[in-house]
Amino acid sequence: MTEASSHGPEWGREYDDQRVHGGHPPGTAHDPHGHRGRPEPEPPLEGPLHALSRAAWQVVLVTGVASLVLGILILVWPGPSLLAAGILFGLYLLVSGVFQLVAAFGTHQATSLRVLAFVSGALSILLGLLCFRGPMQSILLLALWIGIGWLIRGITHTMAAVSDPRMPARGWQIFLGVLTFVAGIVLIDSPFRSVAVLTLVGGIWLVVVGVTEIVTAFRIRHRARQVPQTV
User: Fold this and answer.
1) In this predicted model, what pLDDT tens digit does every residue of 36-60 receive, in sequence order?
2) How many Å apart are CA 157 and CA 155, to the nearest integer?
3) Residue 19, CA distances (Å) to 6, 12, 25, 157, 180 in order
């Protein structure tokens, strides 16, 4: 006897394996006559524009929900929210002061700039430490900080609008500068009451922004469904 009969041809073993396992090679269509079919078509790849449009509405939705929740928390608990803002402001002063001290000792700038950075950094650290002595100090410093910033911004904005006759909407720019200047004076004159009002206004603003972004997210989702998957 020959060895060919014991091993059998190659096609015979392949046919036996397919018959035993009862399947067909992956990636091919089933053929009842035993012949290999054409490869099954792969699903189309997702295009970059479709992926971007699908992820955009999710990002806007998360941002809107976060703004809405934060605004509601501020409106429900204005006192703790204001205290948290004061503590965060104190942390900001500490961190910025440390970085300014590092810049004063570790850079090769002029001596006058290094002295200015050192004084500013040391003052920021002292004010930051003062914020942690009590909640009233932190709220007071936060109000004075915002008030002084608005005061300076109002002056510079008004002067820029007055000195440039070609500025677009010049009248509105002057009005905005004067309004910012007056708001800074009011905030410095009555810091605690003004900051409490600002907290309520900020909470309402966050709620409005959150609702708007949530509605916008669902509109983006509706438009994203119209984008072809392969684009």
Assistant:
1) 555 555 545 545 555 666 677 788 8
2) 6
3) 19, 10, 12, 85, 85
Q: Which residues pair with 28 in a beta bridge?
A: 39
The Cα–Cα gap between 92 and 94 comes to 5
Model confidence over 77-100: pLDDT tens digits? 888 888 888 888 888 888 888 888
Q: How far apart are CA 79 and CA 87, in angstroms?
A: 13
- DSSP label at 190? S
**Kindly report the CA angle at 191 between 188 and 196, in degrees rounded to 5?**
140
DSSP 13-60: HHHHHHHHHT---TTB---TTS---PBPPPPPPPPHHHHHHHHHHHHH
Look up the pTM and report it.
0.57
The candidate with the shortest Cα–Cα distance to 74, out of 197, 178, 219, is 197
